[in-house]
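[step 3/7] fold_predict: job queued, chain A
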Amino acid sequence: MTLHELRGQTAVVGVGTFGFGEAHGYTEMELLARSARQAVADAGLTLQDIDGVCSASVSSAMWGLAVPEYLGLNARFIDSTMIGGASFIAHLLPAMLALVSGQCNEVLVCYGSNQRTATFGRKEINASRKFLDPMPFEHPYEPMMPASAYALAASRHMYQYGTTREQLAEIAVAARAWAQLNPEAFSREPLSIQDVLDSRMVSDPLSVRDCCLVTDGGGAYVMTRADRARDLRQKPVYVLGSATATWHRQIACMPDLTVTAAAQSGREAYAMARMGPGDIDVLALYDAFTINTLLFLEDLGFCPKGEGGRFVQGGAIAPGGRLAVNTNGGGLSCVHPGMYGIFCLIEAVRQLRGECGARQVAGAQTALVNGNGGTLSSQSTAVLGVESAL
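[step 4/7] structure written:
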């Protein structure tokens, strides 16, 4: 079977989240397990039905073994590929292949992190990365990663295309407006463009409001074959296209600071889905920083390269705008427990199932999800759709 023949052969049939914000007293495995049980129950299955597991963690090299053990699963398919926040979108294609080949019947993709409340937090993790994830062209200079890397990309985009801080602030304000419609979101206070501009500078030109949250949280989704999906509890959300690409690890080795590998993963996912940007109703983009959203809008074809700043002006991606982007509030205002990609996919599924209440995009039939890992290093794109989109 070719990649194009995989279109619509598998579906997401259950999603679950747990512990958004501050989950005091929970380990990352406990957060993962709580969300996993919710996702499995949402699909109308039990944990005993699960025979495939995909997961990744910053803190464990053998997380793919620890998760099935903790959940009491006998997994015939395991994928613990770790490429940062894009991992949980990148897990889609291997899971699709495992399902269609008959290697397994139900795949659980799951993640948990207690980054906000853990004793061993971001400062310690960043220090350990010098040994666990060596970057010889960058670590000796002790940059403030990852913010400094994304600030470098933002600065280049500003220089090359005239992008302004006000335009980047539009992205943060739009995310907050969506979050105010989402009772699960961690940050729901009013936010204005001036608030973003006046907030503490973290790494010029990015202020603290240009940067993602640091929260706890767990997320999970369940996949199965299309023929099985139709008999389960929820309306299936079919995977129409999936692709992953990477062009560098260190930001110093990025070929062009204004173009990400989403230009490749997006093109390939569109081709598999037999769709293009004009066919997409909802976008879920990995917004670790405001510059991410702008770059991905360009690289995924929603506006020309260099036009992202002007494209988002005037509330264009906020509620009521011309394009629904990060309707849960994104990593900027909803949740960001270390790696955010799985929550992009969960929000896309909820939108396509019509479950999002005040933030629901009317008539949504298709969604594009893009995961990002490292310092714009890995990009994974998926196109999802309901039955009418097949």
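[step 5/7] annotate
The two ends are 18 Å apart (CA to CA).
The mean pLDDT is 95.
exit 0
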